[in-house]
Design goal:
With 190 residues, this protein is α+β, with helices and mostly antiparallel strands. It contains 5 helices and 3 strands, in the order αβαααββα.
Length: 190
């Protein structure tokens, strides 16, 4: 009997559901914040928390289990190095689900899934731009004198060309249901 086990199917075949969760947990651990539907967010939260727990264990077996789910080796390295150190003292609850809006196309409830304490400790995942390059850019601009703008000749107004007449409807093949070449009039509705 599978009483009270309704959560987590997401109305997908098992292979599609597994691939979806693998992609989403990889993106969540990489970007530390993603937006998805409420149902997917609730399932994703469980998988992501398990991955961070594996990262905290740090054993070879835990790394292999995490790599069976996470699609990118760089993200797995981030999990076992940066995220494991960040959540070393936290006993669980590494993710947060915030309900934000309804999607425009189908009014599906949307949520943001993010890692707790994502900006507090740890280096940003993307390196910042070097300040040396930013300082050199204004010097280059100042060194080059700007050329004077050439005046463009005034545009002359052109009259739009006369539109060609469209052929009348109804003369072609299959123009209307009653225009078949059978010679009969179309059927009247009952």
């Amino acid at each position: 009997m599978r009483h009270r086990k309704q959560r987590g199917k997401l109305e997908r075949p098992s292979s599609h559901r597994k691939a979806l969760m693998r992609n989403q947990v990889t993106s969540l651990l990489d970007y530390e914040k993603i937006e998805t539907t409420d149902a997917k967010a609730k399932v994703l939260r469980r998988v992501a928390d398990r991955m961070i727990t594996l990262g905290k264990r740090g054993t070879l077996h835990a790394r292999r289990r995490a790599l069976a789910v996470i699609r990118d080796r760089d993200v797995a390295a981030k999990l076992f190095d940066e995220l494991a150190a960040r959540y070393a003292t936290r006993p669980g609850g590494y993710t947060r689900v915030l309900k934000v809006r309804q999607r425009v196309g189908d009014a599906a409830p949307m949520s943001i899934v993010e890692l707790v304490d994502r900006g507090v400790s740890g280096a940003p995942s993307k390196p910042a731009a070097k300040p040396e390059k930013a300082a050199k850019a204004p010097e280059k601009r100042a060194a080059k004198p700007k050329a004077e703008k050439k005046e463009k000749p005034a545009r002359t107004e052109k009259k739009p060309a006369a539109k060609s007449a469209k052929p009348a409807k109804g003369g072609g093949r299959g123009a209307s249901p009653g225009s078949k070449k059978t010679g009969r009039a179309p059927r009247a509705p009952k």
